[in-house]
Design a protein that fits this description.
alpha/beta, eight-stranded mixed beta sheet, elongated
């Protein structure tokens, strides 16, 4: 039986520079559509006559192209772009929303099976349209990544919740900045893998089924919503209509957001293969040198606990160490020097402990560490060390050219062979920064609280960072006498749990905590 080809209307409101528009149209010409019937609709809102001519030439070269000029009542206000950003205002946004709604009406009137709605500064992989149709979703966007500011990290045009929330967050759930950063990395890592994923918001490169169009999706403003941008109103309306939103990440589009992106646009259309590292470099090719690693640590009265064992682990791979002895009354300092014999150690002795104002102590640790001109800083406590694989994989981490911070999961041991895991003790479910490449040009900022301020400046996750599956073991809770000491210290320094979690403090001496045996 003969199968009728699906009709796809490819459409775009266009007010575009001629150079970018020519590339956009070239990318449309090469779309694979063997089992599809294509037609095109452009709303010509151009202020440059050359751009209008490009649309006319595209229409003259193929059937099924419709070009609509805005009605006279539509003010032809110029959309301003700079090499820093694009300048939108409320009037422009809803003018474009109206254009998109006219396109939806056109698709319905002309019995299109799908509407492929595009921004005119995107370039598409030739396989994009067939892939999106094959996804068999009512609303699906092809992903693209954009640096919204010239030096910013690329971000996708899809999100999970609210205006641009790109991390998982339950209704009413409160998250710290670190938790948000970790969840953001999870989301970015997931959508960096080829696949189809449900999202909460999308736009700019979207395939809509006839079912979605007939259900009533459109870009008009929702009167009781103040979110900026027509795509957000579209997505919320679609969700309210019971339509799910998806992103396809098989063939990412290329976004020409600023003039600096034009060189990459040409390469994208030419499909030049990415340069891969040579597995057998010639002798003239120098390998990436391993970065120098500085251990940074604060210690106090640790000589009879885990200090020696921790330092014997770390001396396998560190190049030097900076240690603050925070008012010890035992031979902790001697243990440090003995365990790290043969390794440069800068040892600072505080006459009195400064831990009652932890942020001052951590800032002292940071400043003293910077005096040795570190490249990489490994910030650990005296009762922490990594599982065995860290020593084998560390070289790879330290040779990274693109990552400044590595985050790891920390496991709170409640005995020498088991860690605690329950509703309150779940640090191992999150990733925290312990390894930092120091960047002297970055403006580091501290969380200015006397307790639980963090070991590093609070904003380091603004730097390029990565999650590691290597696990960090923390033995500070492993003996009941040490748990009593820590509880007493928290009761003294944070009696109202202003800086910590009261329920966690109260659970420290639980009689039957839930423990999980460690598997190396």
């Amino acid at each position: 039986m003969f199968n009728k080809k699906k009709h796809v209307l490819i459409a775009s409101p266009v007010q575009q520079q001629p150079t970018i528009l020519a590339l956009f149209l070239a990318s449309l010409k090469r779309l694979h559509a063997n089992q599809l019937e294509l037609s095109y609709l452009f709303i010509d809102d151009n202020t440059d006559a050359t751009s209008s001519l490009l649309l006319s030439q595209f229409a003259a070269a193929r059937d099924g192209v419709t070009i609509i000029s805005p009605e006279s009542s539509d003010s032809q206000e110029e959309y301003v772009r700079t090499d820093m950003t694009h300048c939108w205002n409320e009037r422009l946004i809803w003018k474009v929303a109206d254009f998109k709604n006219r396109i939806i009406d056109h698709a319905l009137h002309n019995q299109a099976d799908y509407l492929f709605l595009l921004d005119s500064d995107l370039l598409l992989d030739a396989r994009t349209l067939e892939q999106l149709v094959a996804d068999d979703k009512d609303i699906v966007s092809e992903i693209f990544w954009t640096r919204w500011q010239p030096e910013a990290r690329p971000q996708p045009q899809v999100w999970l919740h609210d205006e641009y929330g790109q991390w998982e967050q339950g209704r009413g759930e409160k998250l710290s900045d670190v938790e948000i950063a970790v969840r953001l990395e999870h989301f970015f890592a997931k959508i960096s893998e080829p696949g189809v994923y449900e999202v909460g918001g999308l736009g700019a490169c979207t395939l809509l089924s006839r079912r979605a169009l007939k259900a009533g999706v459109h870009f008009g403003p929702i009167s009781n919503l103040t979110f900026w941008g027509e795509d957000r109103h579209f997505c919320i309306r679609a969700a309210a209509l019971g339509l799910k939103l998806f992103v396809d990440t098989h063939y990412p589009a290329y976004h020409i957001y600023r003039s600096a992106d034009l060189a990459g646009a040409e390469r994208f259309l030419q499909k030049e293969p990415e340069v891969q590292p040579n597995p057998n470099p010639s002798p003239s090719q120098k390998p990436i040198p391993k970065g120098r690693l500085t251990l940074s640590m604060v210690v106090r009265n640790e000589s009879s606990r885990y200090l020696r064992q921790a330092l014997e682990q770390h001396r396998q791979y560190i190049d030097d160490a900076v240690i603050i002895d925070d008012g010890s009354t035992d031979d902790t300092a001697d243990v440090c020097l003995q365990a790290l014999e043969g390794i440069p150690v800068k040892l600072i002795r505080n006459e009195f402990s400064r831990f009652s104002n932890e942020v001052a102590l951590r800032q002292q640790q940071w400043e003293e560490t910077l005096t040795v001109n570190p490249e990489w800083i490994l910030n650990l406590d005296a009762d922490e060390w990594f599982e065995q694989s860290f020593a084998q994989e560390l070289d790879t981490l330290l040779r990274s050219r693109t990552t400044n911070v590595f985050c790891f999961r920390l496991y709170d041991f409640w005995s020498l062979h088991s860690y605690r895991s329950d509703a309150i003790w779940r640090a191992h479910e999150s990733y925290r920064p312990f390894l930092l490449r120091y960047d002297p040009t970055f403006n580091y900022k501290w969380k200015n609280t006397p307790q639980h301020c963090g070991r590093f400046p609070a904003n380091i996750l603004e730097l390029p960072h990565q999650l590691s599956e290597i696990r960090l073991k923390h033995y500070g809770w492993a003996k009941v006498e040490h748990r009593r000491e820590k509880l007493h210290r928290y009761q003294m320094l944070d009696p109202d749990a202003k800086y910590g979690w009261k329920e966690q403090y109260l659970s420290i001496l639980d009689d039957n905590p839930q423990l999980v045996e460690w598997q190396e």
